[in-house]
Design brief:
Blueprint: E1 6-12, H1 25-40, E2 47-51, H2 67-81, E3 91-100, E4 102-105, E5 111-113, E6 125-126, H3 127-137, E7 140-149, E8 152-154, E9 176-181, E10 191-194, E11 197-200, H4 201-213, E12 220-222, H5 223-238, E13 245-247, E14 256-259, E15 266-270, E16 278-283, E17 289-293, E18 299-302, E19 306-311, E20 317-322, E21 326-330
Parallel strand pairs: 1-2, 1-3, 3-7, 4-8, 7-9, 15-21
Antiparallel strand pairs: 4-5, 5-6, 9-13, 10-11, 12-14, 15-18, 16-17, 16-19, 19-20
Helix pairs in contact: 1-4, 4-5
Length: about 325
């Protein structure tokens, strides 16, 4: 991978006039940008970053960013690609990241990002047409879209308009796409405390995966492995009923997201009293088992993200998820 041939649109909005303020959206955008710049190697000039703290507005009519700024970014891509030859004239990959308020119109079931303008203006950007536009243009070989936003069904919301018709390029069917949404239609995305900082669960699950938790022994993070990691991580924080919506290429046509040294989630086993005997640790994904000598006391393991069960010598069974940097299991 060559990060210098990647481009990105990164949007994080905490401040909304006449709408509830968020606490972690801009921080998520900063974290995502840092990963792009410092790990992937995307040049700063290739990252269009739109965050609400960049703008000071005295009234609700001057709030930024607005939808037109996102369309201006698309116009810039159109201008860069104009007259260029080659299969994918602008490079390997384009990233679209959004953290902020979102919704689903009940008719189209289409997620829309809400820029910082007044919500009664419905100055929104529908994400599916945006992704489809980038895919159809085939400016890039790959599209990665991450949206950490709610998808409430708002019955009075209009269907978002997309006024950029596009004729699909011959290479559009070759464009690989990874897209992840923080919630399914009708659900809310969530912000939680991560080490004293409020952040979105989906964004932090994604970043944990690409920084090594979803990497294989060769240090490669494949899209299907990242998808599994994100699902386990979100379920661990928010419960099984709160599930992200993810579409990722799978074998035999996999998509390499990035490379990172493998750093599997750590599981810390903590016997609450002095214990003897063998406990059984079992993966509920592939039924792999291993025995643990409880007489050794506190122990640490590195496990692939997933659902696990731990059965004590007494036969008592408890289940847990390994996904985040450290999970404590008491027996």
């Amino acid at each position: 991978m060559d990060g210098t041939r990647h481009r990105a649109l990164v949007v994080g909005i905490d401040r909304y006039p006449k709408y509830r303020t968020l606490n972690g959206a801009e921080g998520d955008a900063n974290d995502f940008e840092s990963w792009l710049r410092d790990t992937v190697g995307v040049p700063e000039e290739n990252i269009e970053k739109l965050v609400s703290s960049k703008y000071v507005f005295a009234d609700v009519y001057n709030a930024r960013p607005i939808a037109q700024q996102i369309h201006d970014w698309l116009n810039h891509l159109d201008a860069l690609a104009d007259g260029k030859g080659g299969d994918f004239p602008l490079g390997e990959r384009v990233y679209v990241f959004f953290a902020g308020h979102g919704y689903n119109a009940t008719t189209a079931q289409q997620t829309a990002m809400m820029p910082a303008t007044r919500n009664d203006y419905w100055d929104v950007v529908p994400l599916l047409p945006l992704r489809t536009y980038l895919q159809a243009k085939a400016y890039f070989e790959e599209v990665v879209l991450v949206s950490d936003a709610c998808r409430d069904l708002i019955d009075y919301a209009p269907d978002p308009a997309w006024l950029r018709p596009v004729q699909a390029h011959l290479n559009s069917k070759k464009v690989r796409v990874f897209e992840a949404y923080g919630a399914k239609a009708g659900q809310k995305a969530k912000e939680l405390d991560f080490g004293g900082k409020t952040r979105g669960v989906l964004t932090q699950a994604f970043l944990g995966g690409v920084k090594g938790a979803a990497a294989n022994a060769d240090g490669k993070v494949w899209a299907h492995a990242l998808e599994s990691h994100i699902r386990f991580a979100v379920a661990d924080k928010l419960g099984p009923d709160q599930a992200p919506a993810i579409d990722a290429p799978k074998p035999p046509a996999p998509m390499l997201i990035c490379e990172a040294p493998q750093r599997l989630p750590k599981v810390v086993l903590e016997p609450t009293v002095e214990m003897a005997g063998q406990a059984v640790l079992k993966s509920l994904f592939d039924n792999r088992e291993e025995t643990i000598d409880l007489a050794a006391g506190r122990q640490e393991f590195r496990l692939p993200a997933g659902f696990y069960s731990l059965t004590a010598p007494s036969g008592k069974n408890q289940q847990f998820i390994a996904a985040w940097e450290e999970t404590h299991v008491r027996i």
